[in-house]
Amino acid sequence: MTSSSLTTFLQRNLEELKNNGLFNQIHVLQGGNGPLIHINGRELINLSSNNYLGLAGDERLIQAAEAALRKYGVGAGAVRTINGTMDVHEELEVKLARFKRTEAAIAYQSGFNCNMAAISAVMEAGDAILSDELNHASIIDGCRLTKAKVIRFKHSDMEDLEKQAKAARDSGQYNKIMVITDGVFSMDGDIAKLPEIVEIAERYDLITYVDDAHGSGVLGKGAGTVKHFGLSDRVDFQIGTLSKAIGVVGGYVAGKRDLIEWLKVRSRPFLFSTATPPAIAAACIAALDILSNSAELQEKLWSNAAYFRKGLEQLGFETGHTETPITPCIIGDEVTTQQFSKELFEAGVYAKSIVFPTVPKGTGRVRNMPTAAHTTEMLNRALTVYESVKKRLGL
Ligand SMILES: *Cc1c(COP(=O)(O)O)cnc(C)c1O
């Protein structure tokens, strides 16, 4: 018997979502996630993945995973502290630290998990966290797991951050104060103002925490946003994900040795959730090796993104203030934006609409993620589709 209060709750809320057109129908891919995907037997040009460098289907990663699968089996068998730590997990952490130019690193099962782990391992009652209002959901949830006071500051508004930092410090109410920001904001593709953030942090003795999920593998010759600004020694927590540009799955913190040692004894997803499968760690190592040896994929990513953005602009579209390969195509009102994305889908282009409340009202956009794996021919085909949908909708 299902509880009647649960049944009522689910029916009422699901119906409301469906009536408002907010219920998300999830598309099923037949086959892997690459520049081309297959849905319902149709081929589409994929402009919606975070597989920035095309590594999710890279033969070198597949071979590394296959070899590790044979050597270690499928599962890690335990949490890291019991006996789930294998030499591949250790090697991955050594390579991550080298990649990020830090003393040490700790790997988690996902980027989301990493934020659940790292924030609450150091922030406690009597502390405060200054958090950019557009920070990722996993940062928001990670903050909620602490007893620290969370203070939001206006998106990338350095005056507001400084004001709030000063007020928090002057109040004398808080011991530790942390500032947390995404490195790259995924909806607009803008980069956090890290040089200013670090300066403010040094002025008010703030712990710095940068979640660079969308910057790692993309900016700073691959090493990320912190390296891009030359701040590797001045940021305490560098968070990254292995699920986006690295093409596999996982998350990590890179930082000073003491910090990483502390996270290994205090962060709960590390202590209470099974280690990632060894084949996954091996594939991540292969990806880091590729990125350490060549900038070819990053260069392809950036030139594809510039090409696609210019193409959209030549068709008369507005692409916002992106500074990264994330390429929004601003359509405007919510209904038209959703219609636009649907028409793209019908014509063979997979690019998701993003509307209020994720972005402000009236700034609905179709978000494009060109990758290193797209060919010019694919991008041209996508632009032709954009042009025809624009005409059909009379924009
Ligand atoms: C995607 C993302 C995450 C989650 O990473 P996963 O590895 O997919 O769990 C965390 N933080 C930010 C800023 C992200 O964009």
Automatic annotation (TrEMBL):
EC number from the UniProt entry: 2.3.1.29
GO MF, any single term: pyridoxal phosphate binding
Enzyme category, top tier: transferase
Phylogenetic classification of the source organism: Bacteria, Bacillati, Bacillota, Bacilli, Bacillales
Source species, domain of life: Bacteria
Pfam families: Aminotran_1_2
Domain Aminotransferase class I/classII large span(s) in chain numbering: 43-384
Assembly with partners or alone: Homodimer.
Family: Belongs to the class-II pyridoxal-phosphate-dependent aminotransferase family.
Cofactor requirements of the protein: pyridoxal 5'-phosphate
Signal peptide bounds: none
Keyword annotations: Acyltransferase, Pyridoxal phosphate, Transferase
UniProt-recorded name of the protein: Glycine C-acetyltransferase
